[in-house]
UniProtKB/TrEMBL annotation:
InterPro entries: Znf_MYND. It comes from Coccidioides posadasii (strain RMSCC 757 / Silveira). The keyword Metal-binding applies. This is MYND-type domain-containing protein. It holds the Pfam family zf-MYND.
Amino acid sequence: MDAFPRRVSHAVVDLTPNQPPGAPSNQMLVENQAASAGQEVNRMPARFLSWVRIIISITCAPEHPGVNGGNGREFNFFDYIPRDMIGRRLESSNIRWEPAGRYFAGIRDRYHNVVLNSQVWDCQFCGEISKHLYMSGMPRLMDMRKWLVYAIPICRTLGPCDRKAVMLVDQIFRERFPRVAIPDGPCCEVCGFIHKLKQCTRCKMIQYCSIECQAHHWPIHKKDCRNAEREILGIREGQN
């Protein structure tokens, strides 16, 4: 079992719309932190019983052969996870990935900018100043109720460095947790859903489960989408 983190940032924020309703908010946590520490389960409010407090442990710029930087700075945050995800065995191939995907999408939305803006990061592949973090989480909860997340500083999304970041995180997870199943295939960029996906018709690299998710993500996606589209056209012209 891993040792309890020594540095834990008290950074619980309100849950995003990606989360199931009913989770304790930041205000609830602050007001009930002292009282709930020694409170018996059968005396807790019913709405609290479906959620479990955990630690989100984000390692940004992990050390790995062949990449730049790699100071492996660690960020720890308190958060909540649906109780029905506790203790789920993910070694099986018959796994419903939607709960983990939706949960991680919420984590990414809440903590991406917190970590990115904590200092100036360099892209781990080209060395340019990072404007984005590729974030990927371990699809299971550790024994001590810690959710492990890796964040790779990259210059921008949808470019060659982004694709290298995806491969880097997959490699790190498989090296560190060889017996744990990793979900294969794409998921919705917004909510983490894995069924009935459709590609962005312009860049053909991002997938969404619905028009609503695509519209929600477009203000963030549009600049990189156009850059990726130009890259694709340039590659095609070079092949002709």
